[in-house]
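Milestone M4 deliverable, item 7.
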Amino acid sequence: MSFSEFTQKDYEVIARSYAELKEAARKRCNGENELEVVQKAFEFANEAHKNVRRRSGEPYILHPVAVAKIVVNDIGLGYKSISAALLHDVVEDTAYNTDDIRNMFGDKIASLVEGLTKIKNVLDNQDKKNKNDGYTESLQAENFKRILLTLNDDVRVVLIKLADRLHNCRTIEYMPEYKRDKILSETMFIFVPLAHRLGLYEVKSEMENIWLRYKEPDAYNDISAKINRDISDKEKSINEFIAPIETALREAGFDFRIKKRVKTPYSIWHKMAAKQIPFEQVYDLYAVRIIFNPGPDSNESERDQCYHVFSIITGIYRYKPDRVRDWVKHPKSNGYEALHCTLMSMYGLWIEVQIRSKRMDDIAEKGIAAHWAYKQDGYIGENDSEMDKWLSKVKEILVSPDVNALELLDIIHNDLISTSIMVFTPKGEQKSIQKGATALDFAYMIHTEIGKRAIAAKVNMKLVPLSMQLKTGDQVEIITAEEQEPKKEWLDFLQTRHAKGLVMDWFRSDKARYVHEGRTLLKEKLSSIGIRFDDNVLRNLSSAMEVKNTDEFLFRFGIGYIRFDTIAELVDRRGGNTFWHFPWKGIHEERKAVADKSRSYVINAPGDGHKYVIAGCCHPIPGDPAVGFLSPGGTITVHKKTCQVAENIASKHGDWIVKLKWNTSGGGSFPVRIMLKGIDRVGLLNDITGYISLVMGVNMRRLNLNTEDGIFEGYIDMLVHDREVLDSMIDKLKSIKGIQDVMRTDI
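Output delivered:
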């Protein structure tokens, strides 16, 4: 922030921005009294932030106004939340305090502002705290815990914080690169899944696209250009696809509207990476959304009307049975309801059609805010409890005394991104459980005593072991025995945190014994890989494994919850014996000497004094957008910016990030893998290997190509100097007769 007198132009920009907010707020406010509170909040914040500017140079007040616009337009909250958004930086950045807000705006708005201020305080003080406490602290994790703890008080604080984060992402270009990487990693690791879980599709999608634009700009620009070209080519075809649907629905008496949507650059990029396919093979680029107003005189329920629409449109076009998604009967855990199907147009184009009522569409667009608004208006559907169940589960985790902030961050992240399946009890009662869950997880979900006494299960009337993973539609019966007790081996296959926690709790009654056994076994195992066991090593291992204290770490190791192969891998990744004996506490002076945020570290530059390690999880090569993490001993690990491991680290330890540049004159070769598909012919393999080795001078390390019925598919591992060489080679290989697809893939 900086200070300078506002100009007449600044005041005009502020007035225009607030006029837009006021117009949007008018539609959400019940009467002039509520609108007057919003007006009062703006005037108060405008005066408090007078002559203050952001990094971009624009008046600071434009930020809270923009956050308030997101709160009303994208999330659909009312006047108290709009006012709190306008006031959210006043207490932290000006001379006013929470009591001043309370005196002027009442308890509820003051409590919302106070919740937002607490979150901001942790963020702003993070670097200072980390310098005092060393590497064992993660203030980012503590920050997220504070954010989620506000769910216990008022979920609107989280929603306003999401709006604040979205606007910070929109203006992220004005931040230094290391700060940008930290914020984007936090955003992708927690805020994007949180927006998804709370049903805020538009907020989630925009955050994802901003993440891709800065993490992998070439891919973002390339995909965006292809989308624009594709839209212009197929616009007429899509309109002609919609026309007979409109006619048929009108004749059937439906009150409806149809919207077109195109898949976002991020979702296309993610699908290309996950399925290892080129852009041309992403078939669900386009979707058509049918939104109907349920007829007041109709005898059909909303669900039945969705099926009625489905029967009409599938009478016009052929549909793909395996692409039907019925989230009307079985809504997603974030409350999303819709009926999806994929239809074949008369031009041979597959188009996804989403069928929703007006209520379903409001919840899909505005998420939890719309969900509760409908409940308050007296609309109680059979699926309304899904969101409330999840919030209750989060609150239960938050208040658990056995979970520290770092562990909580992983638990919440995993829960946010997990998907659910539907299974049935022997009596036909439907139950929702985490995808990948076993029969034993199901037993513990039904009741602790059933889990504890379980010896086997019947899935679809067939006897199976407790470790059997369940699938949607399975009917599950648990077989118990009175003398059965939990076994340590169960921890090897249990998937849900709830079940694992209950099994661990069973063994806590004899915790001292398992701590002693864990210490003895760990000393023996560490010795076998050349690590001398002492209290410092134990503390560092506990911290690295994100366990709150050494006794808890030894207990978990003693019962087999933490496996030694995980520890051995961690030791190897962190640099062996020297690292684990390094005194983490009190290292901030050394850290200060090596972690210079103002400079760019040139990878493998001569005389740099740092050891650079290319991460084996993502194998970056020169030319890839890269991020570095500085270890206590001065080693810098280099990751691709889009690497999930890097995102995880940056989301918890943003202060470890250093800005990198590739050393273009350093030479060296880096491992990559390319995947090839095409139509086999005589001499094709010779053409491929000849070009790679003889023309490009690239060293191939492994070649795995298989042919079946005239179609070949496989990969080649090679060593290249940089991304420019790789991209040039891929373009040339695509031009070889018979090759259909060539793309870089994970090793």
